Amino acid sequence: MRLHTLLGDYPVTKALKDGAIRSPDVSLDFADVKVPSSAFKRVVRDLEFDVAELALVTYLIAKAHEKPLVLVPVVVLGRFQHPYLIYNAERGPLAPGDLTGRRVGIRSYSVTTVTWIKGILADDHGVDLDRITWVTFEEPHVAEFRDPPNVARAPDGKTMLDMLIAGEIDAAVVGGSITDPRLKPLIPDPAAAAQAWHRKTGALQVNHMVTVKDTIAKDHPEVVREIFRLLHESKTAAGLPRPGELDTNPFGVERNRRNLDVGIDFAFRQRLIPRRFTVDELFDDVTRTLNA
Question: Where are the beta strands (DSSP E) in 175-238?
Answer without folding.
Answer: 183-185, 206-213
